[in-house]
Write a sequence for this structure.
């Protein structure tokens, strides 16, 4: 079957505890997949001799487990290489959290599963809730059992989870009726793990974990499909943060409700054009910081209308319940048509609204006369007065020529309208009052008297004030919106300039210089930057990009921020006596440093400044991440190129050395054939030494060439049916001269079958093992070679009675160029690397271990009944 490039899918059959039927459910699904025409194999399954489970195993192809030595006995482990060689559509793997035997390719079985997924193979696996890494501590608290074997939550995040449920009472009954699984988990049974109370808590934990992932999938789907409005499959809360004095109490109330419902929650602040006092801004910031500390997702947004902004974010976040503080004032204000709360309840649709009253709520203040405060300046009042006086003088002169006082009144009204578009509400009202009084006194008969004798004249006077009020209100609102737009434009421009500066920066120093320059311009503050040095220490000296040099006590504050990952310094609750505000510089790799700002302003940063500052810190962190990843990539490229050049050099030198070696070997052979009478004793000894050195050099060059072929992937074994006895005798004969001072015993089990292998590669592997035994053991040390069939695998053992090797070196002996501490001089450390490469190229394994009583044993395992490539049976 051809290899598939698409990543495989992982399906986890999940339950509260061992024994609920996860394996049974997994095998049932595997049988259905087989009936659907998919190639299904069992990589590893533990049936615990249950009849129903054993029946489900029948009919599914099962790959024999490999024998992994562990102490005095061998353990059955999944044969990962055999599974990869079969390339099925689906593999069944039991006990995902299992720890593999020492010496395995991966330490955990879930690592084996990840490799199968990367190869494009789907996997069915089983897992209990106590083996989930994030739940292990809670399980220990509930049951008193320390869980050692765990699976990271990231593995579950990429999997499809199927919950296998069983009532705790039924599980206990099943175990009491003699289910074999209890004996397999005797440690859990002794720890009283299967008590009904424990199982009920674990059942709830398993159900909640599955529900959390379903809620996450639902939210991802609604965001992807742009579905607006809540899908009430679960709870998701939103608390509206406002500048009120009880805002923090409402945030805490929402946290308690989220705990009761076990639901995520969002803290939202909507910026509106209405100006907010500095004290109120500080209150909003404290409430948002508190929400972040309590685990909320903090969001700030801008909108001209508070209700519209709340409902827009609620729809985007799939919120099901909105929590808002009870507005101040008497209850009857709720029934006003424009009441914020009334509008929110009316327009919320399917979203529930909670109205919460804070404890010890201060008495309501009387409402302000205007929704938007007037910010008119003295110059605007002077302008309004000057314009009205100029119109009065002009009207007094031209009044008799334009049609009387009513025509002049329209000129006054036009002046009020024009002024309403130029000045604020207060000057507009003043202009209206002055126009009415001056028109009445100087223009309207009787002149020079404040008297209105006709109804239409009174109506005209009232219109002055109505027009002034409307125009002033509209002008003030438009200007507030313009101010908010300018503020947003300034923030967007500052972020754009920072992003451009960071993008164009070529190195770390340029990134920090650009960031400091933009922060100075945006916040009107001096900036200091402290970077970290591994391992997790903050440098004592500020980076040269800094524009101020804080004293020593300030550096200690920066160290506290680096250690705790929280803001500190001026305008905060942590170490507020500092001269600057210090913030951690967070990246995906951790905290990389601390940035401090010494503001020129004496008042705390506004909510707008803090939001912009948070955005600046995020952008700087992303730039530092890009710089770090770029440096890692460049180092990786350099190492790859260096390794390629070294391999090319070794390959070239090895081929070039072959010719002079062959000439030396031929010359020494010719010298050795000269009659002994023509050569003296010392001459014969020198010839023998030259021949031995030539052989060693020839073997060294051959090893270099072979290791280069293995690493380049050019070693492709040609499997043929070979006689094991011939293989062993050829290898022993090849090393006969090296083993001349060692007694060699060969033990080959009778009636060994022919085994598919590459004869040449296996001969080289055995030869290297025998040469290694001869070179690293004293003369007279016995060397043995054994061959037998064990668990459908050919086992070849090369053992000696030498000094052995240090236990800590056992895991490194097959590494390239590795040499033990007490290894004799000579050699390059490539021999055992070649053995490993030749054996694994044929789908086998090689292990090394010290023998009881002294000595070292190398064990080679090759599968006996492998299916030849291209056979129809590979498709199962």
């Amino acid at each position: 079957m051809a290899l598939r490039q698409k990543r495989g899918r992982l399906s986890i059959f999940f339950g509260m505890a061992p024994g609920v039927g996860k394996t049974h459910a997994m095998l049932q699904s595997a049988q259905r997949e087989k009936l659907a025409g998919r190639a299904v194999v069992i990589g590893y399954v533990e049936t615990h001799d249950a009849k129903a489970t054993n029946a489900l195993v029948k009919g599914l192809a099962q790959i024999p487990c490999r024998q992994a030595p562990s102490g005095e006995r061998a353990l059955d482990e999944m044969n990962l290489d055999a599974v990869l060689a079969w390339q099925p559509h689906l593999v069944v793997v039991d006990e995902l959290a299992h720890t593999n035997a020492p010496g395995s390719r991966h330490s955990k079985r879930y690592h084996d599963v990840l490799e199968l997924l990367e190869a494009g193979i789907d996997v069915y696996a089983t897992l209990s809730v106590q083996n989930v890494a994030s739940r292990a501590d809670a399980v220990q608290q509930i049951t008193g059992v320390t869980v050692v074997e765990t699976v990271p939550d990231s593995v579950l995040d990429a999997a499809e989870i199927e919950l296998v449920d069983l009532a705790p009472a039924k599980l206990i009954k099943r175990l009491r009726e003699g289910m074999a699984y209890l004996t397999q988990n005797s440690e859990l049974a002794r720890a009283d793990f299967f008590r009904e109370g424990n199982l009920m808590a674990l059942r709830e934990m398993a159900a909640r974990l599955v529900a959390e992932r379903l809620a996450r999938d639902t939210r991802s789907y609604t965001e992807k499909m742009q579905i607006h409005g809540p899908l009430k499959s679960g709870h998701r809360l939103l608390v509206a943060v406002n500048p009120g004095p009880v805002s923090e109490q409402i945030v805490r109330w929402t946290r308690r409700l989220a705990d009761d419902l076990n639901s995520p929650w969002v803290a939202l602040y909507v910026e509106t054009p209405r100006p907010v006092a500095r004290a109120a801004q500080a209150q909003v910031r404290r409430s948002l910081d508190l929400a972040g500390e309590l685990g909320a997702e903090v969001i700030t947004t801008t909108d001209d209308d508070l209700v519209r902004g709340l409902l827009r974010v609620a729809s985007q976040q799939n919120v099901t319940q909105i929590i808002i503080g009870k507005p101040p004032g008497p209850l009857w204000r709720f029934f006003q048509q424009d009441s914020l709360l009334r509008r929110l309840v009316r327009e919320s649709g399917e979203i529930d609204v909670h109205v919460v009253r804070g404890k010890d709520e201060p008495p309501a203040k009387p409402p302000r006369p205007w929704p938007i405060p007037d910010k008119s300046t003295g110059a605007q009042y002077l302008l309004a007065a000057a314009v009205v006086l100029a119109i009065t003088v002009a009207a007094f002169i031209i009044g008799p020529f334009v049609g009387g006082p009513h025509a002049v009144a329209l000129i006054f009204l036009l002046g009020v309208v024009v002024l309403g578009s130029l000045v604020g509400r207060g000057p507009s009202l003043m202009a209206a009052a002055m126009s009415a009084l001056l028109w009445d006194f100087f223009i309207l008969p009787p002149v020079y008297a404040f008297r209105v004798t006709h109804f239409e004249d009174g109506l005209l006077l009232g219109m002055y004030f109505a027009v002034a009020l409307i125009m002033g209100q509209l002008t003030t609102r438009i200007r507030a919106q313009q101010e908010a737009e300018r503020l947003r434009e300034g923030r967007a421009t500052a972020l754009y300039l920072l992003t451009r500066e960071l993008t164009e920066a070529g190195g770390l120093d340029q990134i920090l210089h650009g960031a400091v320059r933009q922060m100075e311009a945006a916040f009107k503050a001096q900036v200091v930057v402290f970077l970290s040095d591994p391992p997790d220490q903050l440098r004592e000296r500020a980076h040269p990009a800094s524009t101020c040099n804080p004293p020593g006590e300030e550096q200690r504050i920066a160290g506290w921020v680096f250690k705790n990952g929280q803001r500190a310094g001026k305008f905060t609750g942590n170490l507020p006596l500092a001269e600057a505000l210090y913030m951690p510089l967070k990246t995906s790799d951790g905290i990389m440093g601390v940035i401090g700002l010494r503001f020129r302003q004496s008042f705390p940063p506004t909510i707008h400044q803090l939001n912009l500052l948070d955005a600046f810190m995020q952008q700087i962190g992303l730039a530092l991440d890009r710089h770090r990843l770029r440096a890692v990539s460049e180092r990786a490229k350099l190492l790859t190129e260096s390794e390629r050049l070294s391999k090319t050099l070794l390959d070239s030198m090895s081929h070039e050395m072959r010719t002079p070696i062959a000439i030396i070997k031929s010359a020494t052979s010719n010298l050795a054939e000269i009659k002994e009478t023509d050569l003296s004793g010392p001459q014969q000894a020198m010839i023998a030494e030259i021949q031995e050195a030539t052989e060693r050099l020839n073997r060294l060059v051959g090893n270099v060439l072979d290791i280069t072929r293995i690493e380049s992937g050019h070693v492709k074994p040609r499997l043929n049916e070979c006689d094991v006895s011939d293989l062993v005798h050829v290898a022993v004969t090849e090393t006969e001269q090296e083993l001349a001072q060692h007694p060699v015993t060969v033990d080959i089990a009778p009636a060994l079958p022919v085994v598919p292998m590459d004869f040449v590669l296996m001969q080289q592997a055995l030869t290297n093992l025998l040469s290694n035994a001869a070179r690293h053991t004293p003369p007279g040390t016995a060397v043995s070679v054994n061959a037998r069939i064990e668990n459908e695998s050919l086992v070849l053992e090369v053992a000696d009675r030498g000094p052995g090797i240090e236990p800590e070196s056992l895991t490194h002996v097959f590494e390239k160029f590795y040499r033990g501490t007490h290894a004799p001089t000579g050699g390059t450390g490539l021999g055992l690397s070649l053995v490993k490469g030749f054996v694994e190229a044929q789908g086998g394994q090689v292990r090394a271990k010290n023998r009881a009583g002294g000595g070292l044993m190398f064990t080679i395992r090759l599968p006996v009944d492998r299916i030849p490539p291209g056979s129809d049976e590979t498709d199962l």
Summary: Residues 237-356 form a domain with the Rossmann fold fold (CATH 3.40.50.620). The first helix runs from residue 22 to 35. Confidence is low (pLDDT under 50) at residues 331-338, 366-372, 867-876.
